[in-house]
Amino acid sequence: MINPQGLMIVLSGPSGVGKGTVRKAIFDHPDTEFEYSISMTTRNMREGEVDGVDYFFKSKKEFEQLIADDKFIEYAQYVDNYYGTPVDYCIETINDGRDIFLEIEVEGAKQVREKFPNALFIFLAPPTLGHLEDRLIGRGTESDDIIKNRIETAKKELEMMSLYDYVVINDEVDAARQTIQSIVTAEHHNRKRIEQQLRKHLLEVD
Amino acid sequence: MINPQGLMIVLSGPSGVGKGTVRKAIFDHPDTEFEYSISMTTRNMREGEVDGVDYFFKSKKEFEQLIADDKFIEYAQYVDNYYGTPVDYCIETINDGRDIFLEIEVEGAKQVREKFPNALFIFLAPPTLGHLEDRLIGRGTESDDIIKNRIETAKKELEMMSLYDYVVINDEVDAARQTIQSIVTAEHHNRKRIEQQLRKHLLEVD
Question: Which enzyme type, at the first EC level (chains A, B) (predicted)?
């Protein structure tokens, strides 16, 4: 085995860009070999969402207890709700040689980057900010004020692109999915990640 | 258009690793969108090779005149023969926004890296050095001394892996082809390559 530790794959990007839709397309696809790290949140369940599938839905009190117990890789408060990534499953998965996929908000991604600088950071971007506005209005779950607020946040979040390894534009879900799969494949062949073990392996004359 | 200049893709690796076979698989595949930079060489044509398809076959005298005229991106003398990459077609192709693919020897790749640090460098590695020896013997075109010499050279060439961005093990040609395609797709989304233009593009509210 060339690369016994799995990759930590972080998909993030502005709120409303379609991270959840792309993540679903990835995990609905038969070629996907990585594990999904289900986030925890205190926000309300949206129509069609399932507890333990889309998110673990928790109360604020429960969430704050887990923070106190240091049970998150990252967590963030965003539009009055907490979002976080439980630590145990992620660590088990990569230590077991499998890739783990995190779909998280940009503030959380920043925390992951500090703790796991070798993780793979993919920024999902809207085709333009105009598209992002359309998506948020189309979703119909947020008020005008919240949408305006989100667009301002999105502008700031776009500035955070510089912290990512790759940028994928979400103009077509299946194209974005394919690109993300290619990025993961490529990173398994990133020389910096594999050189040490590869060198040892290649010099064995079998 | 996000990335108007094409990528220069450099596939290299030890002699005998199967660069030509992988390159053929890439260009026989309908998904391949990049252009092939046909190398020039003074070595003898092997059975099945075609002048102007596999290489431009030239005499030593002709090759040396082109060196004098500065008509190569890189050239190298290897096992008494010259191998080189003609410059004009490469530059035209990337300036035209298309990717150009170079399959070259490791000495040449080193020269390309000095001149084009932004090129994409992929190292094709044998599963082990034992496999490389088998391939060279199986090819049946080289004497025992040349094979021994090549294995020694290959060991030195493996040390050059550190100069590459990616390492692909050639244990199965079609798998290597797919991996290389994924790497090229990924690099088109490499944040460092595209950030500046992307930022300008995204902030347009259309």
Answer: transferase
Mean pLDDT of A90-104: 94
Residue B43 counted as domain residue: no
3-class DSSP string for B78-125: ECCEEEEEEHHHHHHHHHCCCCEEEECCHHHHHHHHHHCCCCEEEEEE
Q: What is the ipTM of this complex?
A: 0.84
Neighbouring CB atoms inside 10 A of A75's CB total 24
Range of the domain at A27: 8-37+99-202
Contacts of B205 in chain A (CB under 8 A): 128-130, 133
pLDDT of residue A117 exceeding 50, the answer is yes
- Flag whether A110 is in a domain: yes
Is B52 annotated as belonging to a binding site? no
Inter-chain touch B203–A179, beta carbons under 8 Å: no
CA of A126, closest CA in chain B: separation in Å?
7
Task: Using CA atoms of B193, A97, A21, A171 in order, give the dihedral in degrees to the nearest 10.
Answer: 20
Task: Answer whether residue A142 shows pLDDT above 70.
Answer: yes
